[in-house]
Amino acid sequence: MRGTSGEGQASFLNQFIKGYIEETSVSVASFVRLPNANSYYINNINNADTQGLGQGGEVAFINPIPNLALVQQSSVISLAFSQDAIDKNGKRSQTVEYTVQPGDALSFIASDYGVSINSILWANNVRDADSIKPGQVLRIPPISGVLYTIKKGDTISSISKKYQAEETKVLEFNNLDDGSQLRIGAEIIIPDGKPASAGQPKKAIKNEGRFAYLPDLVNFFIQPAVGYNWNILHGRNGIDVANSCGTPVYSAAEGSIAIATDGGWNGGYGKYIKIIHSNGTESLYAHLSKTNVEVGAYVAQGQLIGLMGTTGRSTGCHLHFEVHGAKNPLSKR
Question: Is 0.70 topped by the overall pTM?
Answer without folding.
Answer: no
